[in-house]
Amino acid sequence: MSTVLIIGTLVPEQIVNYCHINGIKNAAADIAQTYMLHGLEKNANVEVIDTIGAVRVKPYPKTKIKRFNDVVQENVKGIMRGIGYINLPVIAFYMREKAIISCAKDWARKNKNKTDVTVLVYSMHSPFMKAAKAVKKIIPTAKIVVTVADLPLYMDMKGGLRKVLKQVDWHRIKRLMKSVDKYLLYTKFMADYLQLPDEKWMVFEGLFDAERAVDDLQEKEDEKICIYAGNLDARYGIKMLVDAFDKIKSDAVLHIYGAGFDKEYIEHLTQNAKNVQYKGVVTSDEMFRIMKGATLLINPRPSAIGLAKYSCPSKTFEYMASGTPVLMTHLPGLPEEYVPYIFFPETEDSDGFAEAIDSIMQKDKAELETFGLRAAKFIKKEKNSECIMEKVMRFVEGN
Fold first, then answer.
1. What does the alpha-carbon distance between residue 289 and residue 323 come to, in Å, rounded to a whole number?
2. Among 223-232, 255-264, 341-350, 365-374, where is mean pLDDT lowest?
3. Residue-wise pLDDT tens digits, 84-100
4. Of 3.40.50.720, 3.40.50.2000, 1.50.10.10, 3.50.50.60, which CATH number belongs to 2-207+384-397?
C-alpha cells in the first residue's frame, strides 16, 4: 500500500477562508491539487495521503496579510498541514521555504520506516522541490514526482529585477531536478525544453472532479453572455477579444472575470466598451455556476506566443465541464482528442474572433446546448480525477 505526500499550495479551509476575507482567491493550481487529492482518496492502493501546503501570495503591503499561522486539518486518508510564515517584504520567500522544509523533514522522520512512499510536488517551485529532496534524504526509497503546469522562466516575467531573480532561481531548480524521479507535464513540448528522457515523463494536462462536471442540460441566462475567466495578462489576447466585441453584429456581451498583473489595464479597456464588462473576482464555485448559465466561454490566448506550446490551460477543463460551448485558439499544447468538442476561430485576430462569435450566436440554442453537453461528458468520462490519478500512480510505479 502506498503512502503519498503532496507538497504544494493546498491548505486547510481555515487558511483558505482567511485569504478570501483578505481579497485573495483560489488559484487554478490550488483547484488542480484539490482534484489530485480527491482522485488519490478514491484509489484503493493508496493508504495514506498527507499534504504540506503554503499559500503563495505577494508580501505585505501588496496584500493585507502580514502573517500566516500553522493550521492542521484531518482529511479522508491523512492530514493536511498549512504552513505558517511571516509575509513581509524580502524575508517572506525565505521564511516560507524554511518552514516548508522543516515540516517535510518532520513528516519524513515519522514515516521513515515505510517502503512505498511517493512525494508529489506541484510545480517547479524551488522551495517545494527542496522540501521533497529533504524527504528523500531521510527516506532514500521515496519517489519524487513533479507536476509541471508552467515553466518557471515563462511565469511572472514583468520587470528587470524579477527577470534576474527568475534566472537565479532557474539555476537552483535545475540542480534540484537531479533528485526528481518522474515528471507530470502539461504538454509534450515541455519534455524537449527540460531535456527529459521518455521514461521519466507522462503528459498530464489536468484533471477534473467527475461529480462537478454537468451531465444534463443547464438553465441558461436570457441574455447572450460570453465569458472570459482567468489570468488578466495582456499577453493572453484580452485586448484583442475586447476589440472583437466592438466588431460583432450579434447582441452578445462579454463578461471578464479574474485578477492579474494587467487588471487595471483591462478595467480601463472595458470602461469605454459598450458590450464588455469587467466583473471582478469570485470564488471558484461561483465562477462555475456563472459559466454553466452562459452562452459561450472564450479563451483568446494566442497560439504564437512563446509560452503557448508549453501550456494547456487548466481553465479549458473547467470551461468544458460546465456544459457551455468553448471558443478558443488552437494552442499547440492542446491534445487532439479535445478538438471535436471545441470551437476555433479561422484567424487569431479580432476579425476572426468576431466572425466566430457571430457564427456561434446564429446557431440553434438546442444545437449549442448539445455541443456543450458532449464536451462535459467527455471530461467527466475521460479526464475525471479518479481515472487520471490511477494512471499517474501506475506511471510512478512503472506499470
1. 11
2. 255-264
3. 999 999 899 999 999 99
4. 3.40.50.2000
